[in-house]
Amino acid sequence: MKLILEFIGVSLGAIVAAFAIEEFLVPCTILDGGVVGIGIIINNLTGIPLGILTVVLNTPFLIIGTRKMGKKFIVKAVWAMVLFSVFLEVFAPMQNATSDPLLAVSFGGVILGLGVGLVIRFGGCLDGTETVAILLNKKFKLPVGQTVLIFNVLIFTAVGFIFGADRAMYSLLTYFITSKILDIVESGMEQTKAAMIITNDAKEISEKIYQRLGRTVTIMEGEGLVTGKKVVLYCVLTRFEIHELKEIIKTIDSSAFIAISDVSEIIGNHVKKTGRIKHDANGEPIGLEDTIPTEPVMAPRQD
Fold first, then answer.
1. What is the rounded distance in angstroms from the CA atom of residue 52 to the CA atom of residue 80?
2. Please, which residues bridge with residue 257 across strands?
3. What integer pLDDT is reported at residue 297 of this predicted model?
4. For the domain bounded by 192-301, which CATH number is listed?
5. CB 195, CB 245: distance < 8 Å
6. pLDDT at 14 (0 to 100)
7. Helices in 21-49 by DSSP H: which ranges?
8. Residue 46 to residue 228: CA distance in whole angstroms
9. Could you give the 3-state DSSP secondary structure of residue 31?
């Protein structure tokens, strides 16, 4: 039932996003970022249907991410992208919602942010560039948000040369509105998050987080006023990994207490995923074998 509800959420988000694109943005030559933005440029220049372009352009990104992102994520992403492409064609013949650029930017940006936010909230993805950005983050620790932003700035620059500076400025404004609404829908998620987990299954949860997300976990001892001694896990991760983290914890300890907070700055060293987890005589995790401290990404400093 939970999986069905997730797919319903992803489906609803994809349909809402397609409506925003076709009824508000495309008629006014206002572009979204990422693959959809490239698709709109090609659509305007060649007349090839945007739905077909979205599938074709996203396919290479999905192939790249298939082995790294997990089957569940890829299945949801494929479903969201296909549904999104289908409804782009469904909405294309309908009467446009408005021909006023400012109204298109305002309402189109809000509705698009709502749609994309729902897709991400329920564990899916509409744009292949986000998949590549997540993979770059996992391997090179490049910030997901900054990678996507750089990619989109290049697209909007191209828009300025092809369609004029005013279209580029409208598109950039739409992008910022969409990003803000997306953050609200996704419970104010930021690029970097810190998770504090209080559980009785610290060993299994920490190993699963390491295996599936490639994130090391700090293990601390704590004591509750009523519940007594507890183990506290602390982990820093990206906003796109929050959904997967929740899934890991729920399958192991449904009664675990989880607190997720924003991280404004990260300094220090991260231990790269190059070895196996070492355990003491009692089977408790005590470190990693054959690992080398590398990129300064994991030690957080919070506001």
1. 14
2. 198
3. 38
4. 3.30.70.120
5. yes
6. 92
7. 34-46
8. 67
9. coil
Q: Which residues of the chain have pLDDT under 50?
A: 189-190, 271-272, 274-276, 288-303
Beta strands in the chain (DSSP E): 192-199, 218-224, 228-238, 257-262, 265-266, 277-279, 285-288, 300-301
Sign for the CA dihedral angle at 29, 33, 39, 42 comes to positive
Q: Virtual CA dihedral for 158, 129, 45, 99, nearest 10 degrees? A: -90
- pLDDT value of position 292: 36
d(CA 148, CA 232): 33
Give me the pLDDT at residue 68, please.
66
Question: Exposed/middle/buried for 11, CB within 10 Å: 0-12, 13-18, 19+?
Answer: buried
CA 211-186-67 angle, 5° bins: 30
**How far apart, in whole angstroms, are the C-alpha atoms of residue 232 and residue 229?**
10
pLDDT of residue 180: 81
Report the amino acid identity of residue 67.
Answer: R
To which residue do tokens 């990619």 refer? Answer: 151
Helix (H, G, I), strand (E, B) or coil at 199: strand
pLDDT at position 222 is 78
Q: Where are the domains of the chain?
A: 2-185, 192-301
pLDDT digits (tens, 9 = 90+) for 207-219: 888 888 878 888 8
pLDDT of residue 8: 92
Alpha carbon separation from 20 to 15, 25, 31, 217, 274 (Å, rounded): 9, 7, 11, 40, 44
